[in-house]
Amino acid sequence: MDRQAFLNEIATALEVDVALLKDDFELTKDNWDSLAQVSVMLVLDEYSTRKVAVEELSACKTVADIVALLGPA
Amino acid sequence: MVEVAVALTRLQAGDIEMVRAWRNHADVAGQMEYRETITAEMQARWFGSINNGSNYYFLLRVDDEAAGLLNLKNVDVQAGTGESGIFLAPGRVLDGMAVFAAAIGLTDFAFATLGLRELRAHILKGNRRAIRQSTGIGYALDAGQEAIENQRYRVTPEAYRAATARFRSLIAARFSVRVQP
Question: Could you tell me the pTM of the whole model?
């Protein structure tokens, strides 16, 4: 899996500069809105080998939590 | 197998005090043009004015929990127009994907069931979440609205279908969306 390509797509989904997208980047009520969540889920559907559950995504607090949903590298 | 049940059921008289409490909450009122406290009497009068065939107000339930209010108001089937609106119950901000699914359910109902040809929405200029949600399903800011505080957006069935095409299978795989007018 191309981690950088994945992060680029997550940055696009969150509408943030990819340079700001460190593991501890926090998902807040200002950036973790409905469009961001469905857009990130689309990216996960593309990159993950499993179907990520809505509940798992909703529980994410940081970018590291999103990356963890990809499973083992 | 779908994971989350999203239901839009017509607002009933027994729901309106719960909705009034949400609507008066600072998190909700702060995103509205009208921000004064709404009394029980005002709410009852309002319900009397919208509980008819020109207005569809739906209680949003996510896995059977009341989570917000969606509406199509001032529906004119002859003209093919209506105005949409949505607000979430305070504290339901993490239901983002379910809200997106609900917005798709509402818009499908407007275009496919009622046969409307255009929906409008008014959104406060600073309400970034609502603007992103709306533009994400195809709404566009009307010309000449840039300097206005409560801005008007519009969407046609064509723009809606184009904007939501990439989300359809994702939503269908994870949500069951039921609209009960």
Answer: 0.92
